[in-house]
Amino acid sequence: MPSCRQCQQPNADDANYCAQCGAALSPATANGPAANPPAEATPEDPAYTQASDQDLWRQFIGPHADHYLGQFKKFSSNGKPKFALSWNWPAFLYISFLWFLYRKMYLHAFVYAIGPMVSSYLTGDISGSLVWSIMAGATANYLYYWHCREGIAEIKKTGKLNPAAQEAALKESGGVQPYVIYVGIALYVLALAGLMKIIQDGPPEGDKVLPPPAKPASMLST
After folding, report:
1. In the chain, fewer beta carbons within 10 Å around the N or the C end?
2. How remote is the C-alpha of 20 from its chain's centroid?
3. What is the mean pLDDT of the chain?
């Protein structure tokens, strides 16, 4: 069971890429010398660009690269981007802006943080947040596809990078921010604590039903 050289994650014996960070695994095995490496592809080889791009996408995405690469196939037709409906459960069930923040999509995180609050303020109805969650679930994969596409294009514009510099650029621009998971857990705990307090305290004073006023004594004597 080979371990990843980058994150030390154990992987299946037949795995070519790390299941945790997406990095290519070493061809060496513990039972013997490394197998003969395949002949290096040249820029004239049609497989050169495809193989290089696949490695870039895997390293840029990081965790769950295989899942997202499978989703991204829906958004390409004859080599051109196209929109297609898909569903992202984490973006729907998790607090939407935190999922975008987790994937380093800062502009989208800002929109999904402010949007529900503005909608609730303008309409006076907090159920609008559910609409935003549904929008996030339906479009997150497509938005993430474009985030990866543009990020990788920027890295490729810098020219031929050595492996260390390329890895550093991919890690800085792509990957995930694990601390966001703990922020989400903390927000859920605070929300649950607030809900429990509301249940214990009951409705506000203004919402309680007041008894009818007592009749004056003069009226009772008549």
Report:
1. C
2. 15
3. 79
